[in-house]
Specification:
alpha/beta; 14 strands; 9 helices; seven-stranded mixed beta sheet
Amino acid sequence: MAIYLTQESRVLVQGMTGGEGMRHTRRMLAAGTDVVGGVNPRKAGRSVDFGERTVPVFGSVAEGIAATGADVSVVFVPPAFVRAAVTEAADAGIGLAVVITEGVPVHDSVACTAYAAARGTRIIGPNCPGLISPGQSNAGIIPADITKPGRIGLVSKSGTLTYQLMYELRDIGFSTCVGIGGDPVVGTSHIDCLAAFENDPDTELVVLIGEIGGDAEERAAAYIRDHVTKPVVGYIAGFTAPEGRTMGHAGAIVSGSSGTAQAKKEALEAVGVRVGGTPTETASLVLAALEGTA
């Protein structure tokens, strides 16, 4: 099994006819994703030939859902149009919207994630690599050829570290890898994914990747203590970040001891999560946990 995205998922791409949309739609199709349509009001009625598959373009998400039964949207539109795109998808009743776009204004992220949640639409992102259930479906920009189906679940703020852990643990493989995004406001949290992985019978262990800034990892630690029975291995990016500077993602803002890598590490370790000092050490901890030697 998997969480959020399976081989049954039917995917629309908002912004498919743009440069990034075209490139990554081709990659998603190559990974086996059931891309059933694109959305562009100015090109409605046309279609795009991707070689082995020709994908129709619809004028709206609602038209795409009506014609194809789509239940997932991947959003490749400029930052200024993300709020409208997400609102349209939520109004149409899409179940999952994966917002790849970076640079979305925070007030737009607040507005559209709240709007979507009120209408039962889950948002992944913004500013994220998307999610992949290897061997089933890939919604976003995660490379599909660096791992295989397996028994690890992964939730990460960082796209690059998502890829690295997928590659380092490729011999075991993953049920689903979710890049939730590193912005201050995102639609799906570590906790949401932990709950989903806890309920997925094919996920045996969860890897949680965090980074400096905010308190998402501390809140995840409290949730793990109270609700998660499966082993969790963690990694926090930012131990070497200079004090007083904002590093990397917009969400990586540290105030005093709050939001530091050390504070997050201590919170996770206090509830039994083993935290690696490097991605490679983290992978070794995962192997040890799966072998029962941790």
